[in-house]
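ping. complex inputs:
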Amino acid sequence: MVQISLPKNSKVQKGKYYKDKTGSKNIRKVNVYRWDPSSGENPRIDTYEVDMDNCPSKVLDVLNKIKNEIDPSLAYRRSCAHGVCGSCAMNMDGKNGLACTKAHSEIKGEINIYPLPHLKVLKDLIGDLNTLYKQYASVEPWLKTSKKNDNVENIQSINDRSKLDGLYECIMCACCSTSCPSYWWNGDKYLGPAVLLQAYRWIMDSRDEDRKERLKKVADELKLYRCHTIMNCTNSCPKGLNPAKAIAEIKKMLVTV
Amino acid sequence: MENKNPISPHIQVYEWHISSLVSISHRITGVINILFITLICFWVGSLFFGETEYELIQKILLSSFGKFLIISIIWSFSFQILSEIRHLFWDMGYGFDLKVSKITGLIVILGSFLITIMVYLLGKHII
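pong. complex structure:
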């Protein structure tokens, strides 16, 4: 169901203001979405004054600085800090991306940081991605083959291998799926760009023998055709992939193959 | 337990892109066009009821509100047609590149206004 406004318990309030204590002249205001599951209160926006003279270049560095030096209660996911693991996916300056690859110099004015859109918030910037992982499991993201000899390489031609370029690089950070209005409002049924890109990755694999079944499974009014080519997914992908094109290719295959 | 968790802000904070703007406008103009087509059907239908009914609608359409209505119809139809052509190319698998989709989106927005102006000028016998 399309629900434009947030439910009562999700309305965002004004939060605390953390004044700079370092006396730095190069200050930036950082607004961060906070929600504490133990407080029973509504989410709030806390504002931090951050000393930018002693801060590395990425948004994740800003968050680390806040957590280390200003407010240790701030919770967010992070791991590799090099755009490989996809843990620190969040909404920065109104756009989804990885905090570890987004430079704060790209953002004008105050830095606004929210969790990935339209997820159940677990704490602060951490959203619940369980539905997405269940949907990912539903496309059976593994190689299905009848070949039994495990000692021989399962060879793929260079051309067949190149068909997986732009698909295998996906790190499942969920930036695309949570940027998609269709996924916001039909996320329980529509698979979303991330999962459909993965589905397409296995459909396109020349070694996979389950292509017809896979196509049949994904060909569903709600699972696939809720994609209306809004293109928010491609706009937000931090790895520069194109989920919208992958979805279109699945649609095309369904009418041509 | 789970239902107590808030939902993170979505449309409230998400930045608008040209592609998302064109997409939502495509939907809205689609609905408007259906209403307009119904209106046109009534207009044509009114011919069967004789001169007085036809003249009544003619009067409404020639008023400034009617003229505004007609210009809006022309715009929403031009927008829908251009955007639909863009969708057809997408369905064939072309135009998914970010830059290309941005340019085609701009063409749809600007083109719809351009066509509206052209149709208006043609109707006024200016060109």
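Chain A touches chain B through 44 residues (CB under 8 Å).
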